[in-house]
Records
---
Amino acid sequence: MAGLVSYVIRRLLFMIPIMLGVTALVFFVTAAAGNPIAIIRAGLLHPNNATIQYLINYYHLNQPVELRYVYYVWNLMHLNLGVSLQTHVPVAQSIGRWTWTTFYLQMSALALALGIGIPIGVYSAKHQYSKADYSITTAAIFGFSMPTFWLGIMLILLFSAYLKVLPYGGASGGALGLWWGGPIQDAIAHLILPMITLAYVEMATFVRLIRGNMLEVMRQDYVLAAQASGLSDFKVTYKHALKNAITPIITLVGLSIASSLGGAPALETVFSWPGLGYYFTQAALSLDITVVEGLTVVITVMVLAANVLLDLLYGVVDPRVRVT
Amino acid sequence: MSGTSGEAGSQTAEVKAPAKVKPRRSATQAAVTWRRFRRNKSALIGLTIVSAFLLLGVFGPFFAAYPPRSTASLFLGQAHEPPSWAHPFGTEPTGVDVFSDSIWATRNDLYVGIVATLIATALGVAIGAVAGYARPSISTAVLGVIQVFFVIPVLLLILLFARLFLLEVVAGWGLTLIVLILGLFGWSGIAFVVRGEIFRVKELEFVQAEKALGASNFRILFRHIVPNILTPIIVLATLGVAGNIITEVVISFLGFGDPNTATWGLLIDDGFRYVNTYWWVSFFPGLMCVILVLGFNLLGDGLSDALNPRLRE
């Protein structure tokens, strides 16, 4: 237990240089990309001299860039992420809501992808070279090759524009009226298309990985031994073989967390999904630098934290892995 | 695979005259791979798709009916038309002919995908080699850098940098800027794999023998170790082209690319604005993208099987 605690502490300490690196990268590149006043001016709808003078003082723009970075990190340490140049809302205030929207979309898609992807992958491996296997692998490689957002557009075309059975986008009906007659039903109606889009693409990777691993594991002696000892087919497959085939999935989920916490900007834009990716895209396009920097910092922190959690989970799933 | 065969040739050179041995060895190595590759149906489909798109990208624009982003159809009264013989993929409300723009986009997206991957692969191999072979103090620091690039949300930084620097570049160089950004941010996966492979290979006898003979570190690394770990590099690079093409499509779809360069993402974006009325504008370019990416993925899978010595019969 002590080992575990010291491991977590060490990992958390390791986050400090990474965070310094990422913030420095974003900060200095933004600063080097052009006169910060010009960039901020481009982000303002109606700049006047008083506002600009206020911003210059607020962001210490008359100071050298290294010193500005120190001010910036100092503010970060006080959880002050600055104020949006466009909406004048403190960034820290909005981020919580955006994170939640992204989180429940990503998690429901991940759950769907794992829940369907793993059994499909197992089935495909058990019936290798059958017709079903060929169809599954073909569908999987298509999903693997598809830009997620394009699939989203095609589904909008079919279900929203042509069949008119599901909403175009957004996370709730709002002023336009609720779908399916209730707030919860409304949220579900809005969730369906983005969730399915994301889940299909994620599932493709899971199916390919599970199928490949199962094929390898099923050839091993201990599986033969389990079969020979008279265990049911289901038990051999799901209890004995799958346990060893599933560990790499954790790595894969870990890798995809970086991209999914980024909120898949294109997917969220297609569905006007009010999450981290959507707002990042908007902020970056309009050069709302404080929001961009704030989102980058928060997302990086969450990605790093998620990676620590996954490392711990590794130790739970695979007893050979010891975190020390 | 020329690197592997060249390395094999130089090893035998101490026994026999190199001029006689070299070509026969290299033919065998390539022939074995090709024979195994040829038997794999999906790999062949991948190769066909990729070759077809390469031909289309190189020669297609010479036969394209309109220059890129041309609004000529508007003045012919042929804007927002569904697919027809004159406009196989239809036209946009602005008069852009989707078919000829898709062909120009094929060239541009292949350029981005391939060159960005070359840059990322070169960086990844060099940095991974240092992390795997340098003395511990240096390699730990380099490993730290690799890990940083591995965990940070790279796509967001790519988008931000594209937006910031596109303001600065001269017109016409927007695509090259995207290539550079993708290359500079995309090397960490390859670096990780190269580092791991070097750990595996550097303890093998032939490396020890080279060391005993007094070869320099640089020579051992790039003449002897790297040719032996080419297989995963080639496979990762092939799959990397697919990934970079998708990322480019995302970049230009979201409006972070050069708006004056024809790319699939830009066409999909145009179409998405009229998703209710003109489905063909985003459908066909997206489909072309899916097929090309599929081709690279199948090719990568096939190469991975054909080059894998463990699967050899």
Note: The longest helix of chain B spans residues 98-133.
---
Amino acid sequence: MNQMAWAMRELQQMDELAVENSPIHSRHPLAKLLVTVFYIFTVVSFQKYDLTGLIPMILYPMLLFAVSGIPVRLCFQKLRFILPLVCVAGIWNPFLDRTVAGVIGNLAVTGGMISFITLLVKGIFTLMASFLLIATTSMEKICYALHMLHLPDVMVTQALMTYRYVSLLLQEAGTMMNAYMLRAPGQKGVHHRAWGSFAGQLLLRSMDRAQELYQSMQMRGFHGAFYYADVEKFHTADTCYIIFWGMVFLLMRYMNLSEWIGSLFL
Amino acid sequence: MDTQLQIEVADASFSYEKEQPVIRNLTFGIRRGEAVGLIGANGVGKSTILKMLTGLLEHEGSVRMFGMEVCREHLSEIRRRTGYVFQDSDNQLFMPTVYDDLAFAPRNYGMSREETNARVDEALERTGITHLKHRQNYKMSGGEKRMACIAVVLAMQPDVILMDEPSIALDPYNRRTLIRTLNQMPETKLIASHDLDMILETCGRVILMGTEGIRADGDAEEILKDRKLLESCRLELPFCLQGSR
């Protein structure tokens, strides 16, 4: 399977995860979206040296993984491409901030090290929360939630159609890669002399397919906005879901749970 | 104007490039309930004609659907009453599941959830693919996708159905299922296809296109038995008639 086909498979895997059945999957998409956004804001708001206060925030993603039945390793498989970027964002911290904050054995722990680890942890937590949202809610339902939040329909429709067109682009690229590889045995990837025509053809073919797809939508009454007639109504359980997690996040933000648990043993 | 005609084309022309018209002075009409096969060699403009009828391509001359001129003003109403089965199923199935694709049109036309679900279930039953209701589109075979495309169009409950190569890439079993389904559909049908055997089994009338326009328009069996006529248009007798040369 070439890389494009592999990327397509990963996208399809997310679509499959989103239609499974669990108490988390059955929550209203707006409730899940609001809780995720609130979680991300809460995590990001922690001070750069407040690592101990941040750690208990792992409770939310871990609980969701357990209840939704989504494997944690799947999340880290998807995140393996993004985590290096998170590392790069904070890589200079240990070099720029050398104030000693503490000592562990013979190792002097600097403020830069703590802030780097805090940044890394924040990155992991926010990415996990985003992954969980996408893995438990289809793209259509996420866009429906955005529509309920009165985001401009143009933006919401663009987001949805971009998601659909990405899979179309990957399909075309995968087909072209297969055709290329069958006629270039022993070659790794596309030769640089073929990059230009490869990219040009990919663009033209994707545009052709996108045009046909759009015509198909026009023939079925599409006029700029998607209608979501099959989304469930907002239940009491959804309201409780938002309130519960909102209170938990606020509690964790303003009360250092790690210190409190530690004080119980001292 | 004949009020029984659901499709009326009079002196219609179309060119993709200037000075090179694909369709020239085309004239024909199709009555309510007719099943018409549109046949011809590659490049004579079969798909182009279908797209002209639905306003996907702008034409010269007169093209009327349901008594309305195919122009921007009437496109919404014409498309609401016309179902179009595209040649490539992957271009027609763009939602995550079969249900979502079938519900797309009813939702866009403002139908309630109950009405939408009723139409979806009816369309699935007519095409015999109720078991695929919640199947993801990329997990279906070519034949299943083709039947899903037809169900997508039936969910709109159109008055006219246009089909572009509906039997392409189907195995014999699925092709037989398609023929059976088409014969059970009472809607007006215009089917563009190279599968002359399927056309013979599903259409009572055939329009044979040549490079210069319509070469013949009449009874399907009469035209499809005329070997000289077909060969002059780069076609052959249907396989089921080749033994009777």
Note: The longest helix of chain B spans residues 113-127.
